[in-house]
Structures are given as C-alpha cells and as structure tokens.
Design brief:
By secondary structure, the protein is α+β, with helices and mostly antiparallel strands. The strands form two sheets. Strands 2-3-5-6 form a four-stranded antiparallel β-sheet, covered by helices on one side. It has a two-stranded antiparallel ribbon with strand order 1-4. It contains three helices and six strands. This is Immunity protein 35 domain-containing protein.
C-alpha cells in the first residue's frame, strides 16, 4: 500500500508532465486532496484560482488526478467516476 505523501508526489509529477504551454500554470489543490475507494483523489486548478479562490478564476473542466494506492497507477478521473469525488467515502 502506497503512502499518501508518495501518491501525492506522483500526482504532482503527472500534472507537470501533462501541462501544456498553452494552459495557465496549474497546481495541486492540496486542501481538497482525499482518499476514497482505495484512490487518492487529487484535484488541481490554475495557480491564480488557488491563490484567490475567486470563482471567476476557476478552471471548470479539471477532472481530478486519481492515484491507485495499491499499485501506484496515476491517471485523470473520468466522467463515469464522478461519484468518487462528488460524494467520497472514506
């Protein structure tokens, strides 16, 4: 079983690797990271939004990063998994 801190580091690297030069700078929303169903759910957003929490700065299409705590697989969440971060179980 992977530790949460290690899984969080994987998600940071995953986001950095996926970042496009045409997107605003993105960062992990550390305040909202949580576990559910054996996954670490790692939301992210623009650095500007995270600094202000002003909804006008929020990126609306940010599916969270999901890290499987058992095997360490990292990927973006999908629409079919929306229930995991909208109503997570512990």
């Amino acid at each position: 079983m992977m530790e949460q801190n290690e899984a969080l580091q994987l998600s940071v690297a995953f986001l950095a690797n996926d970042q496009s030069e045409y997107e605003p700078p993105l960062a992990i929303d550390a305040e909202r990271v949580r576990q559910s169903n054996g996954l670490l759910i790692v939301p992210y957003n623009s650095v500007q939004y995270l600094a202000s929490r002003d909804v006008r700065e929020q990126l609306l299409d940010c599916w969270p990063i999901l890290v499987d705590l058992e095997c360490g697989d990292v990927r973006f969440g999908s629409l079919g998994e929306w229930y995991l971060w909208s109503n997570p179980s512990t």
